[in-house]
Amino acid sequence: MKISPRGIDLIKKCEGFRSRSYLCPSGVPTIGWGHTRDIYLGMVCTEAEAQEGLEEDLAYFSKIVEDHVQVPLNENQFSALVSFAFNVGALNFISSTLLKLLNQGDYSAVPDQLRRWVFGRDRKTKAKIKLGGLVRRRELEAALWESK
Predict the structure, then answer these.
(1) Cα(123)–Cα(57) distance, rounded to whole angstroms?
(2) Residues designated catalytic
(3) Quick check: pTM over 0.70?
(4) I need a labelling partner for 11 at 20 to 30 A (CA). Which of 30, 80, 107, 135 fits?
(5) Are 83 and 141 in contact (CB under 8 A)?
(6) Could you read off the pLDDT of 50-90 as tens digits, one per residue?
(7) 44 forms bridges with which residues in the sheet?
């Protein structure tokens, strides 16, 4: 299964394009549309290079979803999960209650489980904080999950 154009647009919209590397809210060096592998501060990329990084990431997270989801998915459900895994990381996705419930056949639990993943850490105080960008992203993922 492949992520849909709608899923790719969701990721691009939520990540935003940046040609210069930066630290994401979690403190991870990031560039392009949320690409983090082998990135260091001071890097610069073209939009074409960012597209290559995104395609690499989409292939990786699509495989993670394919390998760990044990129930049938439609294209929108698959795309919502790829976006979610892309954002929270493979290990968080694999160990999530969302995945456990889904693999038990509880499709209806997924939107509420997505909405739980809206917290980050303040870089200075390390306190857990709700991030507006994550709230918006989870709503978009939940809407994609529930769409036909």
Answers:
(1) 25
(2) 15, 24
(3) yes
(4) 107
(5) yes
(6) 999 999 999 999 999 999 999 999 999 999 999 999 999 99
(7) 20
